[in-house]
Design a protein that fits this description.
Blueprint (H helix, E strand, L loop, with lengths): L1 H25 L8 H17 L6 H12 L4 H8 L10 H17 L1
Keywords: Coiled coil
């Protein structure tokens, strides 16, 4: 009986993890949307996965976020697709701050 309970709980946990992971990897920003809200939602999905012992690295988050804004912020994606000065890797903070800055610029227009 206990083994059946554990097996069922494991299956449900795995299914939940797969659903959250799919939602994270397919999340896209829509034109006219709220960038801050979208970034918060993506970060929340990452935290949910971490709570399930599924760690998403900063580097992977960079890829996920750039994939999510590819349709609406191609210029940002192009910037980070180029070699960075000094050969430095693109950091998550740099991507987040750039997108927030772009969103503020868009609001001003």
């Amino acid at each position: 009986m206990w083994r059946a309970f554990e097996a069922d709980k494991t299956k449900r946990a795995f299914a939940s993890m797969i659903r959250v992971r799919r939602k994270l990897y397919t999340s896209t920003f829509t034109l006219g949307g709220n960038m801050e809200q979208w970034l918060d939602e993506v970060e929340d999905l990452r935290r949910q996965l971490e709570n399930m012992n599924e760690v998403i690295t900063d580097r992977e988050m960079v890829n996920i976020i750039l994939q999510g804004v590819e349709e609406t912020h191609r210029n940002v994606v192009r910037i980070f697709n180029q070699p960075q000065p000094g050969g430095q890797p693109v950091t998550l903070d740099l991507v987040l701050n750039t997108l927030r800055g772009e969103a503020e610029t868009d609001k001003a227009h």
